[in-house]
Specification:
Blueprint: E1 12-15, E2 46-49, H1 54-63, H2 85-104, H3 108-124, H4 133-141, H5 146-166, H6 170-195, H7 198-218, H8 225-241, E3 246-248, E4 265-267, H9 271-289
Antiparallel strand pairs: 1-2, 3-4
Helix pairs in contact: 1-2, 1-6, 2-3, 2-6, 6-7, 6-9, 7-8, 8-9
Amino acid sequence: MIRLTKYIPLFIASLSLIGCGGSEKPTENANDSTIVKTDIDTSKSVVFYNIPSPLETFTILKMSGSAFDKTVLNSTDKMPKYFSSFSKAVNLGVYSTDLSFCYLYKQSQDFNAYLKSINELTNALSIDGSYGVAVNKRLQSNSNNLDSLMAIVTEVGINAEQYLKDNQRNTATSSIAAGGWIEAMYIVTSIAEKTQKEDIVGLVGDQKIVLTNLINMLDQFKSDEEINSLLIDMKGIATIYESVNATQDQPVVSDKDIISVGNNTSYKLTKEQLKAILEKVTVLRNKITL
C-alpha cells in the first residue's frame, strides 16, 4: 500500500491571545452596553492544529492511478452565493483545496479559475496584503508556469494564515482549515467509493486522526453558531470512525516515489463504513458550499 505519510505528524502551536487585533475594534465608550460580535477570543489560549496539506493526499490519489475528475470540485459559479464572513472563509478553504487538486493534475485553466475566486474571497475577508498589487504582478508574469504560480500561492497562503493568527481572527482561521479538510475529504471519499482501490480507501481511513484533531480545534469556538453547526456534523462523521480499528502494516522501505514514514498505523474501512462516511461528508459539504 502506498503511503507518503503513514502516521500524520501534527504541529501544535499554542497562541496566547492578549488584547484585540485585526480590523475588529471595540467600542470607544467603555460604558456602552452594546455587544459587538468580533472574531477575537481574549479569554484563553487557543491551540491550532496544522491540517495536512491536500497536496499530500492528492499525490497518493495520483500515484494510485486515479484520473482528474472535475465533477468532485466545487464550482466557481457558486461564488455569488457566499455573502457571510463564515461562508467566505469556509469556501476559501474549499477553493484552496480544489486549486491544489487542479495543480497536481496540471489543469491550468481550472487552476486559474480557482485562483481568481481565492483572490476575491481573500480580498472580501480583508486578509491584509494577501493578493496585493505586487503579488498580482508576480502571478501575471508567471501565468504560463503552473509550478511558479503554485509556489506564489503557497507563499501567500502561509502569510495570510499568519496574518489571521497575528490579528487573532481565530474563527476565520479555523473555518478556512475546516473548509479545506471537508473538501479534501469529499474528493477522496467520492473517488474511493467509485474506485474501491485499497490505497484510496486507506486514505479515508487515515483521516480518523485528522478529524479528531480538527474537532478539538473547532471545539474551542463552539460558542459561534456556525462553527457549532460544523462541529455537530463532524462529530457525526467521527461516530462512524469509532468502530474503525487500527492495524499495523509491514514497514515499507523507501524506493523512488514510495516513502513510508512513522509507525505504519492504518485504519481499515469496510465498504459499509466507507459508504456511511461518504454520505455524511456529502451532506456536510453540500451544506457549506450551498
